[in-house]
Structure to design on (455 residues):
């Protein structure tokens, strides 16, 4: 498509819909223009900041007409840090927009009978604040004290934050106490400009159900003084029950924890709960960030599965096995498969902790395990899939086209790859339910639960 606008152009736009990153999308001479902070139905004057073939980006210079759903963001850092994208939109309208994001994905990527696909209303939270059970923040010294923050959107500039409103109160309170303690201890803090100093990140994870927090400190080097300061932090800060440190000296690293975590003091694992299940978590354990919505999601998986106690369930990309364990009391047998050895080791420990004896876990290639089950004549009645954002591998999709598994329940954090995968499966499977769930309120992220039955 011919480029219609150039950087610096000022245009008038009517915002038609919301994009997958929470930005408003309008069209100028049929060219899509993405505008952060703009909402559907709004008329805005926009200055173009980036122009490419077929689409462009712009910033609002003036609102000509505002949406009735626009509200004043609660957080003083909103629009400065890159943590949230939707605080300027009423929560009820956030749920509607997320439902429409899923519908838009079907419109774009599904070439079957779209009118047969009904997307349910988004399952929201009663209180869409204070839900994150984990935070991992870069730290700095502001000249007076040790502080933490979040990077501004599309920037390496750090916005200092006293309190994040989507973190659980337990996490926010503990972070403040940790930073105060580190300030008094006069520790060495990393300065990215000069690439000097020791402490880069503080990672906290905790559960309000058990009131236990695990702290992991990410250092640039083996700083004995700093390590001595954080050792026995579990005796200095009430909620902290477990202390670790790790080394990451790569200034360009996107991942925060890249190397082994070394245990320092307290308990090696903290306790958490998921409904009636007990969990013990180490720094390497994967666990959803919103426990409240996680329980709702698993309840919906169980409802979609319609288990009678006689079924065999296969949980692909099982992680620490939480979905399979949540369903285990309602079926005959559960298999969980993941290619991450740490996840599988944790899953086995969790099953033992909860005295679940009708579940088995396998670490390795998913296709290899599927082929083994087929040879043994042990194909599952229900298949659960919760893949990474990139979706399900093509080899597995091709296999499922031929395998006569009666029911698939697909949990996805990416509507685009979900619909592309469903489109691939539509010759063999019919979509009966599509249900968005708001795992991360105030952000543009959306979880989608889909049920497919064999034709």
């Amino acid at each position: 498509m011919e480029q219609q606008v150039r950087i610096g152009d000022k245009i008038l736009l009517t915002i038609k819909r919301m994009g997958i990153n929470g930005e408003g999308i309008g069209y100028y001479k049929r060219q899509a223009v993405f505008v952060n902070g703009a909402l559907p139905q709004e008329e805005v004057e926009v200055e173009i900041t980036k122009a490419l073939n077929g689409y462009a980006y712009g910033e609002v210079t003036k609102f000509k007409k505002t949406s009735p759903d626009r509200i004043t963001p609660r957080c003083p850092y909103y629009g400065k840090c890159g943590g949230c994208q939707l605080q300027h939109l009423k929560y009820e309208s956030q749920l509607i927009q997320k439902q429409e994001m899923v519908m838009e994905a079907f419109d774009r990527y599904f070439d079957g009978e779209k009118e047969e696909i009904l997307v349910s209303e988004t399952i929201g939270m009663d209180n869409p604040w204070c839900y994150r059970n984990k935070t991992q923040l870069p730290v700095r010294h502001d000249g007076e004290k040790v502080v933490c923050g979040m990077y501004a959107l599309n920037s390496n500039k750090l916005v200092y934050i006293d309190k994040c409103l989507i973190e659980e109160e337990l996490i926010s309170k503990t972070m403040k106490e940790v930073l105060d303690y580190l300030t008094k201890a006069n520790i060495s803090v990393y300065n990215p400009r000069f690439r000097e100093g020791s402490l880069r990140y503080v990672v906290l994870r905790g559960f309000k159900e058990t009131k236990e927090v695990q702290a992991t400190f990410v250092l640039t080097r083996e700083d004995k003084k700093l390590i001595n300061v954080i050792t026995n932090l579990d005796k200095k800060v009430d909620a902290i029950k477990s202390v670790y440190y790790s080394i990451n000296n790569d200034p360009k690293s996107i991942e925060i924890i890249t190397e082994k975590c070394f245990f320092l003091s307290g308990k090696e694992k903290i306790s958490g709960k998921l409904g009636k299940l007990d969990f013990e978590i180490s720094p390497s354990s994967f666990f959803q960030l919103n426990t409240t919505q996680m329980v709702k999601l698993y309840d919906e998986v169980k409802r979609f599965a319609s288990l009678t106690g006689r079924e065999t369930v296969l949980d692909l990309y099982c992680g620490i096995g939480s979905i399979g364990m949540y369903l285990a009391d309602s079926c005959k047998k559960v298999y969980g498969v993941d290619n991450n050895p740490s996840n599988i080791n944790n899953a086995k420990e969790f099953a033992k902790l909860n005295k679940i004896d009708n579940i088995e876990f396998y670490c390795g290639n998913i296709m290899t395990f599927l082929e083994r089950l087929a040879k043994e004549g042990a194909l599952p009645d229900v298949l659960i899939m919760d893949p990474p954002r990139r979706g399900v591998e093509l080899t597995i999709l091709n296999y499922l086209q031929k395998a006569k598994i009666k029911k698939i329940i697909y949990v996805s954090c990416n509507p685009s790859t979900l619909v592309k995968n469903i489109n691939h499966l539509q010759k063999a499977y019919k979509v009966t339910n599509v249900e968005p769930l708001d795992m991360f309120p105030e952000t543009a992220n959306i979880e989608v639960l889909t049920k497919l039955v064999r034709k």
